[in-house]
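Bug: token stream looks shifted between consecutive jobs. Job 1:
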Amino acid sequence: MDIGTSSSKAVLVGLGGELVRWAVREHTVDRPLPGHVEMDADVWWEEFVSLTRELLGAGDSDADVVAVGLSGMGPCVLLTDDQDTPLRPAILYGVDTRSVAQIARLEQELGAQEVLRRCGSALTTQAAGAKIAWVADEEPELFARARRLYMPSSWLGRKLTGAYALDQHSASQCTPLYDTIARGWYDPWVQLIAPQLHLPPLRWAGEATGSVTASAASLTGLPQGIPVTTGTIDAWAEAISVGAQGVGDLMLMYGTTMFLVHTVPERLSSPALWGTVGALPDTRNLAGGMATSGAITGWLRDLFGSADYPELLRLAEESGVGAGGLLMLPYFAGERTPIMDPQARGLIAGLTLSHGRGDLYRAALEATGFAVRHNIEAIEAAGGDIRRIVAVGGGTQGSLWTQLVSDITGRDQELRMQSIGASYGGALLAAQLVGEADIDHWNPVKEVVTPHRHVAASYDEVYALYRALYAGSADVTHALAARQHRTRHAP
């Protein structure tokens, strides 16, 4: 099971990797104020129960389920009291940008360089610790009752097994509460920010967090006593689903947002990226993520009304390299790596009356390609050594998007047979709890997307304009962001 930003996905997978059944529940997040992105944690459990019972045919299935794997979006902040009652909706990952003031204060108190050195990542809107500090500052009476911290996978684990635990990787995105050098909670900063929280014991993603209780078995239809993985954040489960955990591997996750996970031989850090502990024991990562990617294509489809994705892809292909002279900045929800600018805004430059839907749609696809290239350059500037790129996620289903990313970056991308993503990676870890499961047997390589060299020079030119466009427009878009904030808060 994977709890994502726009849907929850469940898969039933055989011990040999075959996809037996799958089911999806779409959902929406709440945006109560500008920069605030939240979700009711009850939805996570309700969808887990509903999807599991659908996969198992409400108890009539012939499937003999032997283990459960979990993953979810993150890092999220779900705070509960000592009875596990959620005190407020969960605050989501870096798409929620409310903690800007807390980031500035903590950088001043702790030292920005010391945070980067100890935690592997700078304090940004991705940091779960800064979001906890926001709750302490803005909702002090509520925060005084907070005792436990959960993320989607650990909340499901608690509901299924009664265990309170979090995986090491998710904890490493709780900057500045986690020490990536010692790989554990850093008590001095925990005591400063959240002294009353009982932070969860830490395990690796593939370790068992516990076994399904009788009450959870009754609700879900799962057998009592089977093991449940600790689980991890969805992008890292996506990397597991396509075997992208070797040193030098880079996973590209094509989804509502675009995410990049690069496995490095030793601990690296950069103020433009997230240096994290990996999902698997003794692994380290440099990671990046866009605030939007597929979210923009969905937005355009809704604006266009009757158009569907196949039609838009056809029109975008007809538009050609450079989208008819259009250039988009994909910062529609601010931007995470590498610019780390929550006040950035989307921009479409070069519009004329002759441009159509295909030009706009292609400009959105190309914008994500330029952002991927920008992140790749940041990873290599930080000391990363990218030897192989593996793509995964719903956006890999149409060939145009992956081809554009290869054309713009000049890099091959490996595609595996199964691209369903995090839920499949969770299933692999679950299978490894009860036996042997090898990713190359489970999910072999299907094809390799290679760049079209004849378009490289054209994309180099447009990429240079892309980089210049942000630098030249940031003052204006920041002023517009401030106006948006004032307008939406006006009485």
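Job 2, same session, no restart:
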Amino acid sequence: MARVRNMITSAAFVAMLVLSVALVAGFFGTLHPAFDSFAHFRVHLAVLMALCALPLLATSFRLQAATALLFAVAAFATTSNALPVPRLWPVQAAYEANPGDQLVHPGDQAVYRLLQMNLRFNNPTPEKVLSLIGRTQPDVITLNEVSDMWEAKLGHLASAYPYRILCPYPNGVFGVALLSRRPFAAGTQSRCDRRGAMATATVDFGGTDVDVAAVHLTWPWPYNQSWQIGGLSEEFVSLGETSIVAGDCNAVPWSAAVRRVADLGKLTVAPSPGPTWLSIELPDFLRFAGLPIDQVFSKGAVLIHSVSRLEGTGSDHLPLMVEFSLRQEEKKPLDEDKTATASVTQNGKTRS
């Protein structure tokens, strides 16, 4: 009996050490994408390591176990931005608005809605997607995995969302799209990147131009995610001063990959509402064990009030509803305005 107990204790200790190595590696994702792959499972690794350490507290390995337990708690704490965040007001109000209306914040700021969805290229229930869009009536929609099948289905939304850009992926499966019921800004050109991983358009939100982008990154190392981010760097860098980007990043908020995207575009990552992806083969009650890999980024005048998960629509990703408003530019003092308009530069000459 003692021999069996010793074997179990040794196995738990070895497992704890292996998990700690993987957990530490995840903090060095900037050195190599392979390390960043471990970062995506930081929560899982921290929980498993803690479970291995707890029984070892009653053995001769108690010091090592206590150290591992503290490290697991500290590592878990670094993922706190992936936990659900409280809303500033009831979300149901957003869904009861009439077409063409938008929420109004108590401060008289219009609140707009962006719906982010990974459609799943072979979704068996596309009617659920169309129903959700019809019920929530977002101002703009960012879509991933827009396969050839989905191009026809999205045609049913043409009257409600006449402003659109579809960017097909070379394999006809993983394209992206952006749909809007608000017009694209006059004189601007919507664009796709070379491989159909990012769609960008400048949308007119009540007189304020906002660059809106839908992005879909591939899987982490050993796949080509890091290379793809490099290929999209020009797209991120060229985003306007006021922008909102949403998509399936196949990367968690605390990963080096997401930080890299944010740094390239000078964007801020919105807090995640929790796991959005779960393998399609698993039941939804295990969602807590999934990964928060659908992200929302913003900068400039965009003020994000909430990001929430909606019900599933047949994809392995949950849709995200983003509620945001646009900060009004502060008016300059009258004397400053006079000074600014006192002279005009034209053709290299200044005239009063």
